[in-house]
## 1
Amino acid sequence: MAVPALSGTQAAILAAYAELIEEVGSDDVSFRLVARRAGIAERTVFRNYPSRVDLLLATATWIDTTVFAREESHSIFDIPLAIRDAMQRYDARPELAHVVAEAAMRGVSGAAPSSGRARLERLLDAEVPSLDAAQRRAVIEALSHLDSAATWVTFRREFGMDRRDIADAAAWAAEAMLDSIRDRVAP
Amino acid sequence: MEESVDTATAILESAAILLRERTFDDISYRALADKVGISERTIYRQYPTRAHLLAALSNWIEQTRVPLPPFVTVADFRAAVHERFRAFDASPAYAYVSARASAISPTLDAEPAYITRAIEAMLDVAAPTLNRRDRRRVAASLRYFSSAMFWARLRTGFDLDAGEICDAFDRAVGAVLARLLDATWAEP
């Protein structure tokens, strides 16, 4: 994922906002509170993030690449394991998982909705280069969708699943997406 | 003053109209109050935070603007989801509201959506002998690939149209169901 380089001040702002989201929820955090927590002036926050939405999206990206950073997978067939780990991390930080999930669902004005797509394409092309375009696309789309905080949110909210069940179901679904290409690896 | 249920609905109707010209973030309570012809305070009473408004608006849109056709069989389920995805294509703003509302931290009632119960009921009939864990795995996967979130991700992240998104949905559903043995399925 392309992570924009942050200044020290920006990193402090985003970390402060993430902390406050976990303490009081994303609705109730004022710029003044963020500034105080980061130990800077309120106008410095505004200068870096002119609106609430700017701040929220930058924070979601920061959370996703630091708190929820993925361990590097070396094979597309390792992705289900990475997804299982990711679900456990989301479950440990539920407020932050909701922020990341929502940021990706804001449509054109939101965060990148499939931030891991390029990585998945690289792995798939290296290992299973013989797929036709439609098969390749289907695998990438489905795995991108599963490897996200929205999976954790949906499984928890709609099915009342706990950490273990969510990790299991998400990894199981990812394995299903790989079933049709398991024996098609380039020799 | 007693506020009727109609005030709550009138607010949502107006919000849905405003969605045609601006994003949810750009719909202020002030503008919404003007549009409905009520005070801003009345809106706050109905929807104390924007998260409440978003959740209610999404429910109302799903029920009245992009209603899901009822389904019993897997074939009907696929057709119903195709129809909803095409409706999202015609009104992307509705889909984004729905996708976003399903991602936020639940406000008050975290009732599962109608489609969740319908998928569970479908599997109860179609695969009565399937064990509980596999049933939940299948239900959760089908639910997630039939969501506004899937439509929104494929639209903004992959730039797909409704036909392509329906195709991606069909392939994902096929991959999930292919994990079950043929004997799982009840004779029709």
Note: The CA atoms of residues 51 and 120 of chain A lie 33 Å apart.
## 2
Amino acid sequence: MEANSTNHDRLFSMVWLALLALTAVEVVLAYVQMFSTAGMLAILMVLSLVKAALIMAYFMHLRFEKKSLVLSLIPSVTIVIALLFVFFPDGFRALNLGVNQQ
Amino acid sequence: MADRADVAPSIERLWDGGVFPYGVGHKKLGMWLFILSDSLTFSALLIGYSYVRIAARTWPTPFHFWPSVVFATVMTLLLLSSSLTMVRAVSAAHRGDRRAAVRNIVWTMLAGLGFIVLHLNEWFGLINEGVRLWANPWGVPLFGATFFTLTGLHMTHVASGLIYLAVVAVKFGRGRYDSEDVEVSGLYWHFVDLVWMFIFPLVYLLSVGGK
């Protein structure tokens, strides 16, 4: 750690620049509004996941931790969050039944 | 850290204690477990917001590109930059450079404070426009509920992060805390940053109504 901490500082600056660039892409997409809401949602979620991965891997140091820690943390939380998606089909129910139609 | 990971654990050693199966100390592991549970809290709120937005036939898009989205972008910039100064603080702490570590933590806190000031400014703007938890001028009452709950819980995290960082800066500066404590507080701060990376697009960028 001590020997390559300046090296790491440069790496962190690069990650910061990458995060800023991804944010800029998101904001420009919101400005030009060339996609539908669903398309925007898909693109923004992919970009956000990339940003989250960069933050976890470098800023939160997970890339440099033991693999056992990463394998204990990430898959479990991913699965539990994915399980919450079970509510989304119900979200469309009211629309498909036409309940809200005025 | 490296010498812990290099210990070749025989079975007896594993059950004797003193072995680090994850290669991290108990503070860091504890913070990671807290982050796991907190990420589920925020996921539930974000998914709840998405759920009611899908289920509602219309959804207000009150955020104009100028000023709302521009301000939210500046807030994103502040949080990302505060993460950069935080990793600098952590590497300074590992080098044993207490002065540089405290200085970088103070920069991190200033950026966090700027975030809260801008965010509260926006909150008061919306409240002045008549947005409440239960009602707003654009019709769908749940808009205010989801917006204030999501951003409010996040702002609470930023505010408690400021207190946490202040304590760490003071105690590390005086030599009462070691570099692991700085690293653990850094994990918390980066997590707050990470959550904003989802709130910003979902709440702001998907609600831009006109330029």
Note: The helical segments of chain A are 5-32, 37-59, 67-84, 88-97.
